[in-house]
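Worked example

This section walks through a single chain of length 108. The input is the sequence exactly as stored; nothing has been trimmed or padded.
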Amino acid sequence: MISDTHVLWVILTVSAVTMGLRLAPFILMAQLSDNQYFKYIGQRMPVGVMTLLVVYSFIHVDFTIEPYGVPQILSALLVLLVYWYRKNALASIGIGLAVHLTLVNFIF
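Given that input, the structure is written out below as tokens.
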């Protein structure tokens, strides 16, 4: 049987590590903001993340059976169109997600 003291120490340790990990970026921000590597990653990472999201979105779609990937394709095209028109990634992803969920749940 685990003692109450042992449980308390585990909770305190986990809490301290969690708080430390959450505070570390704010504490280290001044030191990391001048780092050229992090500036490079900050410029290149959004494209890489979006590419991975698109690949992940289509990886399990079977284009040989109904609905032939139509909801995914329409949603992806809408995301591109909204982003091209508004230049707002959050709005385009939100609208694309809403349309995709509507198509999947109510139409197809």
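What to look for: Helices lie at 4-32, 36-58, 70-86, 89-107.
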